[in-house]
Amino acid sequence: MSDTAFAGALALALAYAGMALLCLAMDRHHQQVWGREPSRRQRLGLQGGGSVLLALALLPCVAAWSATVGVVLWLGFLSAGVLPLVFLLPYAPRATVCSALLLAPLALAGLTSLL
């Protein structure tokens, strides 16, 4: 796998996991998955974790492409990362959590090898 394809896969995985955490910080989606509303601490933790993962998704884009092209591709990966959530979250909310919890550590481990 080429470096640019690997960077794209990492950015997409980080964007998906980050968007999933931001979705789970919302009352409605948290209720769907766990059957209760999140506490203030849980909501802040999910929002913070999702924001960090989205920011980290920028790193492989900038590392593989230049800064100008990398930022544009990062925005595209953010859009592509949320698209599976649109279809998966309403129908299989637990699968969303499992996939995000699986992808986040794998992508972070891959990020360390890229940088």
TrEMBL record:
Keyword Zinc part of the UniProt annotation: no
InterPro entries, alphabetized: DUF3325
Keyword match Transmembrane helix: yes
Keywords from the named record: Membrane, Transmembrane, Transmembrane helix
Source organism, top-level taxon: Bacteria
Bilayer-crossing regions: 6-24, 44-65, 71-89, 96-114
Stated name of the protein: DUF3325 domain-containing protein
Organism (species): Massilia atriviolacea
